[in-house]
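Page 42, continued from yesterday. The earlier attempt failed because a stray header line got pasted into the input along with the sequence. Redoing it now with the clean sequence only.
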Amino acid sequence: MIEILTISFIVALTGALSPGPVLTFTIYKSLNSEKGYLAGFFIVLGHASLEFSLILLLLLGASLFFQNLVFLIILGIVGGICLVLFGILSIRDVYKKQYELDFNISNENLKDFKGNSFIGGIFYSITNPYWEFWWAVVGLTIMIDLNVSFKNPMGLLLFFIGHELGDFVWYIPISIFVYFGGKSLNPKVYKYVLIACGVFMIIFGIYLSINIIIFPPKI
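This time it went through. C-alpha cells are written below.
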C-alpha cells in the first residue's frame, strides 16, 4: 500500500513542477489576493475535486475494458511510452530554455487569469488538454499497474491522497513564497529539479511498459 502512495506522490510532483496555467493562476492569486498565501491551498483543492471526479469516471468507464487482457497490456505499453516521451520533452525543454521561475509576471500575461481560487483550480485544469490526455493514458495506466480499482478501496484512497499531496507540496509553498515577496527561485536549482523529474518519468515509463508485459494484470 505504501508503494501506491509513494509512486502516486512522485508522479504527481513531477507534473506539478512543470510550468503551466495552474501555476500561473497560483502566482496571480497569490499576488493579487488579500490572503494570497492561502491561494495555493484553495486552487489545489479545486484541482483535487476535479481529479477525484475524473478518477471515478475513468474507473467506471474503463471497467468494461478491464476484462480484456490485450487492451490492458496495450494501454500499459502506450502509457509507459508516453511517460518516457514526456520525460524526454521535459529535459529537452530545460536545455532549450532558461528556466527561471519568475514571479514578476506582467499584467499582459495575467490578463486572462481571473476569478475565485477554488473555481480557478478546476477551470485552469480542465482547459489544459495535456492534463486530460495525461489522465486518459498515463494516469489510467498507473492505476492499472498499481491495481487501483473499486475492488481495492484502500488502494484507491491512497492513490488519490498521494497524487494530491504531490500538488499540495509544490503549490502551497509557491503561494506563500510569492505572497511574502519572493521574486524568483534559483534557476539552477529549478533546472536540475526539472531534469531529475524528466529522468524519473523516463525510468518509470520504461518500468511500466516492461512490467505490464512480464506481470500482466489479473482479470
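Notes: Residues 69-96 form the longest helix (28 residues).
Reminder to self: strip header lines before submitting.
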